[in-house]
Design a protein that fits this description.
about 70 residues, mainly alpha, 3 helices
Length: about 70
Amino acid sequence: MTTSEMETVEQVWPTLAPLLFVPHTEREYDRLVQMLDSLIDVVGEDETHPLASLMEVISVLVEKYEDEHIPELS
């Protein structure tokens, strides 16, 4: 990452941090699931949508939490 890119990230991160985080509690997990549901409604299966990569990142965060905290159904 270049210095210029880092400066840009530093400027926008305070706005994004409340929306993009690793969930550590059930409440944070629920919040990410709600955001993911909203993104799915908007993005659908359109891989070219500007928010498609955000949807993918949040999906990974949700899946990681589920793998670590939610027992599999038998």
